[in-house]
Here is the input.
Amino acid sequence: MNCADCGKVLEGEEVTAPCYNLDEEPVCDECYYGNYVFTCCRCENYEHIKHRGAIGSLIAVFDAQEAGIDTTGIYRILKHPYYTHCYIDAWLNKEAIQKIADFPSDLLREDDGLWGYPTGHLCQECQAKIETALSPTQENP
Ligand SMILES: [Zn+2]
Ligand SMILES: [Zn+2]
Here is the structure.
């Protein structure tokens, strides 16, 4: 079996636990981690970019001014496109996102600066944790 992107012969875990591109074709680790993952800004786990920025999902805004909105916090993506970008810059579309919470303290990490981006995406697990924390009564109505 070969990597669907670069053609390299897949070996080891690339065969037994393959990673996939956006067409669900197996790709090698190099292509996968180079092109198809993002890093969660809370737990720093990798997640497939197909989950990134989905409608209904959550994003974190660390630097409101840079992101082109009013305040930092956790925002829900209501519709696409949720950001606009030009060659050197990107900013969020205010009408496409809704603030659902202030910035949680557990999201601030020691290595803050957060890769220099004003916004961050969250893995599905962290999104679920934040949703649960925001609505503790929902589980026991
Ligand atoms: Zn490859
Ligand atoms: Zn996470």
User: Anything to note?
Assistant: Residues 124-134 form the longest helix (11 residues). The chain has a mean pLDDT of 87. Helices lie at 13-16, 29-35, 64-67, 124-134. The radius of gyration is 17 Å.
